[in-house]
Amino acid sequence: MRGIMGTNLRMAMRALTQNKMQALLTLLGMSVGVAMVVIVSGLGRGAQLRIESQIEASGPTRITIKSGNLTPAGINTGGRQDTSFGEEAEGAVGIGPLVGDQVDVSQNEAVMDARRRMEAVRPTRHLNPPTPLGAAEIELLSHDVEHVIAVAGSVTGNASVDPDAGLRMRVVRVQGYAPAWPEMDGWDTLEGELPDGASISAGAPEVLLGPGAAAKLWPDGGSPIGRILPVKGEQLRVVGVIDAKEDDKAIIPSVYVPLSLAQTLLERDNYDSITVRTSSVAVTSAAAEEIGEKLRVLHQLPDDTFDDFRIESQSVSALPSMGSNPGLVRAVHANTLELEKQSWEEMAKSLRQAGRTFTLLLAGAAAVSLAVGGVGVMNIMLVSVAARTREIGLRMALGARANDVMIQFLVEAVTLAVLGGLFGLMLGGIGLMITEYGLHWATAVSPWMLLLAFAMAAITGVVFGIAPARRAALLDPVVALRAE
């Protein structure tokens, strides 16, 4: 069997070399079809992964912890307190009769109820000086809180640029980031590349710029990649430009350096904030509450004190002036958890469905290209059958069966398609590289995708080669030998 297959392959290659121009055009058609499949699959998968990354980065799976607390609104901590009883208490007839020079409010139920409410919320708690956030908090959040899958500390501050560098700006806003932060925040490179995790952990003197920072620093408008940014005596090499979210109206440009390097430049030992990511939207609120409880234990806060930290997530971001009163946070989470979970999951589901629809539309276009290549295979095989009619008749006269002839031409069709598939894989890979590095579009390639594209090429050869092979097998040997 192996010998017969080898013979068929040799005959197929000889037949292809006899019709070089037709074979070359057919190979080109198949190559374009397979390349389209590879490129479309890579773009579709890359777009889907990017959508999911953006959903995770911007969704309510992130919790930010900051040092210090704000005075809760409406609670007296030694300053001004609100003495209004409200409209329903005062009313049109006054709040109560005069007794001497004092107002008697004991019979006014609305006033007495308002007073009781005010006295109930007047705290005996007090605010402690904030505990700086450091390695102990990172350790706690990384190992002792359920559902936390990533932790990243950060510091931010202004730093001076060396005046002799000839730059347009004399000050930059340094933002230090941990190895987990680029993925957590959904960073994508517009130019250059992101440092690897080892370089970030080692505090390598490599800097990333925001989209508008290069124009603010270098007036010539050239590419910033490879340039040196001298900050406080440290020579920072620009390795990439990222699409980080930043204020376009900000005068001072933002630059991003590894966290340990930023702490050195800004002369800080602690963190401004710590951000964690949870495993899903459904557990974010519960994780935020657990973080608050465990940070109180870590900071050894008595029960009669407020938190010396703030916890911010999507649930409580609508209450920026109300501090981090644990009771209030629990109330907010209890009322918004299901709404937060359902609304975000619905939006994420819609975005993923849109990505899949986009991929299917592109896959349809790629399938048409592959079908065109298959028609080319059928065309050259029909031409080959017509040109080799006498050869077919001679083989049958010498004892070849109809099945042998059919297999011979089917092998030729599949060989042509497979060769086109191999060239198509190379063209598709080159196309994806141009798309990713030239146009900066997100792409993703997997071995299974390449194997599937190659298999589709072989299947196309079989499907479009059956009709010519069957036509050759059904020829009458006597009639075939008489053919000119």
Automatic annotation (TrEMBL):
Topology in the lipid bilayer: Multi-pass membrane protein
Enzyme class name: hydrolase
Subcellular location: Cell membrane
Keywords assigned by UniProt, alphabetized: ATP-binding, Cell membrane, Hydrolase, Membrane, Nucleotide-binding, Transmembrane, Transmembrane helix
EC code: 3.6.3.-
Transmembrane stretches, start-end: 360-388, 409-434, 446-467
Tagged with keyword Iron-sulfur: no
GO cellular component term of the entry, any: plasma membrane
Main location: membrane
Keyword ATP-binding belongs to the record: yes
Molecular function via GO: ATP binding; hydrolase activity; transmembrane transporter activity
Sequence ranges assigned to domain MacB-like periplasmic core in this UniProt record: 24-292
Domain ABC3 transporter permease C-terminal intervals: 365-473
Record-given protein name: Macrolide export ATP-binding/permease protein MacB
Gene symbol of the encoding locus: macB_3
